[in-house]
Amino acid sequence: MTDGQSVGSLWLEQAQEAAEQRRFAEAVATYVRFHEHVLDHDPGMRGVRASFAVGDWGRLAVAYPPARDAMMATRERAVTRLKDPSVLRDDGTPGVALDDLQGVVALNEELRRPEDTVDLVRWLDSHRPDLAVEGASIVRAVLVAEGELELAARYLEDLDATVEAWAAVLNEQTAHGPEDPPGAPPTRASHVRIYADRVGQVLTVLRGTGQPDRADQLAAAAITAVGRPDVAAAVRTRLL
Questions:
Q1: Which residue from 8, 38, 105, 123 has the least number of CB within 10 angstroms?
Q2: Contact, 70 vs 31, CB < 8 A?
Q3: Which pTM does this prediction carry?
Q4: Structure confidence by residue, pLDDT tens digits, 31-55
């Protein structure tokens, strides 16, 4: 580990290196360890865990099919914990429900199994509605993409406060600096896209469940809540 390198970064680097050197079994074991335990050491890698790391793992599965089996087994362990919180992880500690849910959604996306996420949400809706409410933002994109708008609509609570909170994050992210310079990573554009996508998913649910006026009102509020006029214009372009 180099100075300043986090445990999560080290594990991900080790997994990638093992895969590149065709030490496939070692790579799989390291991806499993990363997925199941990185947040114990580095909570800041929550987004990486659910995106880049799962994507790398999925690419490994193309060359080494047992990697896909490991993804499915990891997913099933998380689903089991979500359905029975008394089930512990391999180190004897309880799972964190929202982290398990995020992991399941990410793995199902990489496995091309969105219907399994829908099935899990239906189970949570019946048996753990508190978790379904807490995890609504994690599963909403899948429910919208799969046309499960009525199910998604069950968990649209306090929308004005939710959009205000999302806008506050965007305003902080875009408070300084102009447009991303040519050749630089599109950081500001990504922040705008994430915000607009979140709001857009909610608008799709509202419009798809017979609430067009509420959708229009929320869209206007989502644009107004953005502080910088240029950023608000970018959001408006995506939403309207």
A1: 123
A2: yes
A3: 0.89
A4: 999 999 999 999 999 999 999 999 9
